[in-house]
């Protein structure tokens, strides 16, 4: 057996061992059936666990966080995540107390665990149902009540458990977890993503906007776009070239703004911005009149910022990952063409007064 085969065999054995341990713990302790009951009356300290670095997955928390804040106004809601860059996006949401960031080292993990346990949370929530890290944090949180999804692999003993909801969208599932796992609470439901950049982020965004459009002298609609995506979600250069040609032909009054990844070279043929701070990027996107992107973090960030988004779905399912925001549309299959996309943008611009004038 060569080194590559040995590595594959070890990985396979680890996966099998984890599976066996998971099944054993589920039989002994787990929650495989729904448990719907009221919250303890003095539920005031809530922890939401989402140990994932993908921007979209963190933004998918925002409808549930807003639902919690509106429905439990006396509660303080803390969140634990993995990427410090995403922290400003959650800190300004209503009802949010502290956003903890999990650093991947043994010492940092122990320190964070001690801090979380010291808070003595009344309720801890795993909104995803498919993360071993989330489950472990939930089990170790020392919360009086624990909420999550009841599945054949749910080895955490939960006080409140819901079966997998009918909605396939990741953000809506988290809201449905609250409704299905708790009785005697009237949930004020939110179904769209949302972020609320602070004053400093807004000032910085205005500076980026002014630099990008320093030569724009008359009010004009601004169509922002982002060409990048991971793996086979990305559309090729020819698709984007055709899209830009059609915008120039069919929407000659519109100004284009290209959103570039931080550190990438900026194009000289049109206005562009490269912004690393996510709250500043959200505030900048909010000034646009429409946004076009493949399924990606910036697509969801634009929807959360309140921009009508044309989401382009080449590989992923819009039923699970559509941009959730006012005026957003998803294009897939036969509609995933530059022609349909430009028509979608035209419809967006026709339904709103110009918000993106420099």
UniProtKB/TrEMBL annotation:
Gene3D superfamilies: Glycogen Phosphorylase B. GO terms for molecular function: transferase activity. The keyword Secreted does not apply. It comes from Salinisphaera dokdonensis CL-ES53. Keywords: Glycosyltransferase, Transferase. This is Glycosyl transferase family protein. Pfam families: Glyco_transf_9. It comes from the Bacteria.
């Amino acid at each position: 057996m060569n080194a590559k085969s040995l590595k594959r065999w070890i990985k396979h054995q680890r996966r099998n061992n984890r599976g066996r341990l998971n099944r054993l713990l589920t039989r002994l302790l787990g929650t495989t059936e729904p448990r719907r009951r009221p919250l303890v009356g003095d539920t005031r300290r809530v922890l939401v666990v989402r140990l994932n670095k993908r921007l979209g997955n963190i933004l998918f928390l925002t409808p549930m966080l807003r639902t919690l804040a509106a429905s439990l106004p006396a509660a303080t809601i803390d969140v634990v995540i993995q990427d410090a860059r995403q922290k400003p996006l959650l800190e300004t949401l209503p009802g949010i107390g502290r956003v903890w960031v999990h650093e991947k080292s043994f010492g940092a993990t122990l320190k964070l665990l001690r801090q979380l346990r010291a808070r003595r949370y009344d309720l801890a929530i795993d909104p995803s149902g498919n993360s071993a890290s989330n489950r472990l944090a939930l089990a170790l949180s020392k919360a009086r009540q624990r909420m999550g999804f009841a599945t054949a692999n749910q080895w955490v003993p939960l006080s409140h458990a819901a079966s997998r909801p009918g909605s396939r969208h990741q953000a809506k599932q988290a809201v449905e977890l609250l409704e299905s796992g708790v009785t005697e609470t009237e949930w004020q439901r939110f179904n769209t993503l949302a972020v609320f950049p602070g004053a400093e982020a807004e000032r910085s965004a205005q500076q980026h906007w002014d630099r990008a459009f320093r030569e724009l002298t008359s009010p004009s609609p601004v169509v922002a776009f982002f060409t990048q995506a991971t793996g086979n979600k990305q559309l090729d250069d020819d698709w984007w070239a055709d899209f830009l040609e059609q915008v120039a032909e069919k929407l000659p009054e519109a100004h284009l703004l290209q959103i570039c990844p931080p550190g990438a070279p900026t194009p000289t043929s049109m206005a562009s911005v490269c912004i690393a701070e996510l709250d500043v990027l959200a505030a900048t996107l909010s000034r646009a009149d429409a946004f076009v992107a493949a399924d990606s973090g910036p697509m969801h960030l634009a929807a959360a910022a309140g921009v009508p988004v044309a989401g382009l779905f080449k590989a992923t399912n819009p039923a699970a990952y559509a941009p959730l925001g006012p005026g957003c549309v998803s294009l897939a299959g036969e509609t995933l063409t530059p022609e349909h996309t430009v028509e979608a943008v035209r419809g967006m611009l026709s339904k709103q007064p110009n918000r993106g004038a420099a």
